[in-house]
Structure formats: structure tokens, C-alpha cells
Design goal:
two-stranded antiparallel ribbon; 7-stranded mixed sheet; 9 strands; alpha+beta
Length: 181
């Protein structure tokens, strides 16, 4: 148990270090603001298939994160959960994506009381399409990046290497500004 915990801590610490060193912007393969968001079909924490097209007509906060049950990812998820009613008032949905399995997501949601959808991308294809894939010790993980997608399916704003502590507040403020236009 302790070995697994230490291994997880080392994995996350390395992922954070790699994310900080990862290039950002179009050169890193990130879709740019104003371009169509790459479509996807992934399995949810409830074991159902969903695609970006299912959310057409709504604002989507698509956030990528390295790993379920780790401190930074848990903090980020808790803050999105804390602000969930505010997102709903703006007509936005939150979708979290990592390479963890749908079963891992189900357990993470249950343990942490999360009431928004997490998507499983075990082969990291969607993560890569959003320029958010990274490797750590031979494992693929998602970098901590967020994309606000408008109701027409276009990228409205891109965040890279986000700080999980204040990120939800930052996204809510951006949504308010974007929805005024």
C-alpha cells in the first residue's frame, strides 16, 4: 500500500515537472481559439458513450488532468464541484478527461462526491488531439490543460499548465466575459 502511494506521488510529481516543461501553444499541437474543437467519442464514469456533438448548443469546459485520486487532480475536481451550480447557471457543462479507466473515474466520483462527467481516454487519442498528451516513465498521461468550447463547437479559450487551486474561478470569469460577446 505504501509502495503504491509513493509510486503515485512520484508519478504525479514527475507529471507536474513534465507539464511545466511542456511546450504550449500551436507548436505543441494545441487547437487554437476560434478553431473547431476536435470531436470525440469516449466512455463516461457511468459507462456510457458520449461525444462532443452531444453538447452542441451548450458551453463546454473540457479539462484534461493527469490522474484520478491524486492531490492536484482532486483539488481541481473539488473546485469544479464547488462551483457546479454557477456553471449550470451559465449553461455550461464540465467534462474532465484523463487516461484513467471509466471504472477508476466511477470510483473517483463516488469517493470525492463529484456530480459532473469524467471521460476515459485510455489510449490518449483524444488527449493527443487536444495537444494535451505527455509521457512519464513510459506511461501516457494528460497534461493539465483546459478548453472552453462555445455552443457552436469552436474553441473559445485555451488554458495550459493550469494551477488547480484557482482554476475554476478563472474559468468562471472567462465564461462570463465570453458570453457577453
Amino acid at each position: 500500500m505504501i509502495r503504491r502511494l509513493l509510486s503515485s506521488v512520484a508519478l504525479v510529481a514527475g507529471a507536474i515537472a513534465l507539464a511545466a516543461a511542456a511546450p504550449a501553444g500551436p507548436a505543441a499541437g494545441l487547437p487554437a481559439a476560434g478553431t473547431p474543437a476536435p470531436d470525440f467519442a469516449l466512455t463516461t464514469n457511468e459507462g456510457k458513450q458520449t461525444s462532443l456533438k452531444d453538447y452542441r448548443g451548450k458551453w463546454v469546459v473540457l479539462y484534461f488532468y493527469p490522474k484520478d485520486f491524486t492531490s492536484g487532480c482532486t483539488l481541481e475536481a473539488h473546485n469544479f464541484q464547488r462551483d457546479l451550480a454557477k456553471y449550470e447557471q451559465t449553461g455550461a457543462v464540465i467534462l474532465g478527461v484523463s487516461v484513467d479507466s471509466a471504472d477508476s473515474h466511477k470510483g473517483f466520483c463516488a469517493k470525492e462526491g463529484l456530480n459532473f462527467t469524467l471521460l476515459s481516454d485510455p489510449d490518449a487519442k483524444v488527449t493527443a488531439a487536444y495537444g494535451s498528451a505527455m509521457e512519464y516513465k513510459g506511461s501516457k498521461l494528460a497534461a493539465r490543460n483546459t478548453f472552453i468550447i462555445d455552443p457552436e463547437g469552436k474553441i473559445a479559450k485555451v488554458y495550459t499548465q493550469v494551477d488547480p487551486a484557482g482554476h475554476s474561478d478563472e474559468v468562471l470569469a472567462a465564461l462570463a466575459g465570453l458570453q457577453k460577446h
